[in-house]
Amino acid sequence: MLVVRISDDESFEKYDVVKRYFARIFNVLSKEIRQELLKLDLTEKELKEIKEELGFLSEDQQKRYIKELIENKKVLND
Question: Count of domains in the chain?
Answer without folding.
Answer: 1
